[in-house]
TrEMBL record:
Protein name: Histidine phosphatase family protein
SMART domains noted in UniProt: PGAM (SM00855)
Protein source organism: Paracoccus haeundaensis
InterPro entries to which the protein is assigned, alphabetical: His_Pase_superF_clade-1, His_PPase_superfam
Pfam families: His_Phos_1
Gene3D superfamilies with a match to the protein in the record: Phosphoglycerate mutase-like (3.40.50.1240)
Amino acid sequence: MRLMILRHAPSLADGLLAGRRDVPADCGDAAAFARQAARLRPAQVIASPALRCRQTATALGLVPDRLEPALWEQDLGAWEGMDPSLLPDLGPLPLDALARHRPDGGESFDDMAARVIPVLQALQRDTVIVAHAGTVRAALSIVVGPAALSFAVAPLSLTVLQRAGADWAVQTVNLCAGD
């Protein structure tokens, strides 16, 4: 089973953290969308219900077979809508502690991964998912654990995992339209 996860196009959130806020996407780069669409081989398409993911799917010429609420981005709680430069300094946390950290009123990466991973594990055929950076990292965490938090996931980038039985392998991470 091949899993292709495409992060949504750039959020139109004025440089602020979007998280669970339902902000639109900038789908204006037709050439980038065409390059990424040519890489996709969907047997089924699943998308986060977020507006930015639905818009990205449409711009790619994809019609989701279903919208999956479990694929929403991490709930950043008090950090929602914050300028990233104003985030609190958490110090030199080990990755496993960072994965457990919960912003006030939000969820940790581990919390988010706990709702995303069962959806991915249940897939039975090749799938394209249009979702968020957090969704991509949750998928990567199946293979590398909390080290998934160290991966860059650019807007409109493609990450590909392969599953054979219960074993997952990472084929590609953060493949951008210009690559």
